[in-house]
Amino acid sequence: MEDLVKKFKVRKGKHFNLKLQDPAFSGIYDKENAAELLSELSMEMSELQERMYALNNKALLVIFQAMDAAGKDSVIKHVMRGLNPQGCQVFSFKQPSAEELDHDFIWRHNKATPEKGRIGIHNRSHYENVLVCRVHPEYLLNEVAGKPDAAFWEGRYESIRNFEKHLVQNGTVVIKFFLNLSKNEQKKRFLERIDNPLKNWKFNRADIEERKKWNEYMKVYEEAINATSENYAPWYVIPADKKWFTRIAVSKIIIHTFQSMEMDMRPLSASEKKKLESCRKLLLNEK
Fold it and tell me: What is the DSSP letter of 141?
């Protein structure tokens, strides 16, 4: 497990170069055994989630960012399928509403952070405000006069770092995944969505227009990841060309994160054990 954590974690202070990452990497793992392994990981994750839910003193926020067709929905579906829905909440952030635009760019995301004891999953997130808004500065509307300069974007990075640090300082563990899809694999998945009637709903003509800006998106992703990967809220860049491997890597990193959260159950005191024994006797003596 440590091998994948170390391999895919972006280190603070060490410049991360997206071009050096292999979207098709799968290491020592193979597709033939992937389903069985994922099932085992799912059971382990479920047990760790139950422990966090019972302790109710920390939360986990998992953020997913990626280009279209990278498999965010698929990862969430397969990796989180074994979790108790009562302790898990998923938010998919679309175009902001008029009310949301009247607030600061983090407002709607802050409202969606998980309560203690719960897992929060953000399918896209506050990072859209330094990704798609950077490729499309016209989306900023009245937030800035003219074209945003470098100081504007650095201000946004600082806001993001402060927001995530605030969450961590108040008991929420934050981990961020960028699903690194190759342009060729995206093309294959777009064609599948067009050719398969059952997947037509997943395709939007606008996806082709965004694909034309691929290089711009890679540039802003790389800069955002470098600017906001902190020890307290790390980025993990996960190869996404092989969906089965993506699911395994994400599962292992989430489990590793759980295991680092110090979730040992507090042993009962003598008086608490005595109370439990008293309740046990009452139940056994019921008529």
Answer: T
- Measured CA to CA in angstroms, residue 75 lies from 62, 179, 246 at distances of 12, 10, 7
Hey, what are 32's tokens?
């033939």
CATH number of the CATH domain containing 229: 3.40.50.300
pLDDT in tens, 150-193: 999 999 999 999 999 999 999 999 999 999 999 999 999 999 99
Instruction: Show Cβ contacts of residue 265 under 8 Å, excluding neighbours closer than 6 positions.
Output: 51, 54, 55
- Residues 239, 22: Cα–Cα separation, whole Å: 6
User: How many angstroms separate the CA atoms of 94 and 246, rounded?
Assistant: 23
Q: Is pLDDT above 70 for 225?
A: yes
Strands (E), the chain: 59-66, 88-92, 119-123, 172-180, 235-239
Which residue, 185, 200, 188, 173, is CA-closest to 263? 173
Which residue, among 259, 243, 269, 235, has the nearest Cα to 29 in the 3D structure?
Answer: 243
Predicted TM-score (pTM) above 0.90: yes
Residues in contact with 240: Cβ distance below 8 Å, sequence separation at least 6, in sequence order: 23, 66, 70, 71, 179, 180, 181, 185, 246
Q: How far apart (Å, rounded) are the C-alpha atoms in residues 126 and 80?
A: 22
| Domains of the chain: total | 1
Domain that holds residue 157: 2-284
Percentage, residues of the chain above pLDDT 90: 76
